[in-house]
Amino acid sequence: MINLDKLPNQLPDEKITGVFRRHPITIFGIYVALMVILVLPVAAYVVLHLLQASILENEGQFALLIMGVGLFFMFVILFLYQHFLDYWLDMWIVTNRRIINIEQRGLFSRTTSELRLYRVQDVTAEVTGFVHSMLDYGMVYVQTAGEKEYFAFEDVPHPNQIAKDILHLAEVDRREHLEEAMEAMEQTTVDKHDDIRQKAAQHIEP
Question: Are 125 and 59 found together in one domain?
Answer without folding.
Answer: no
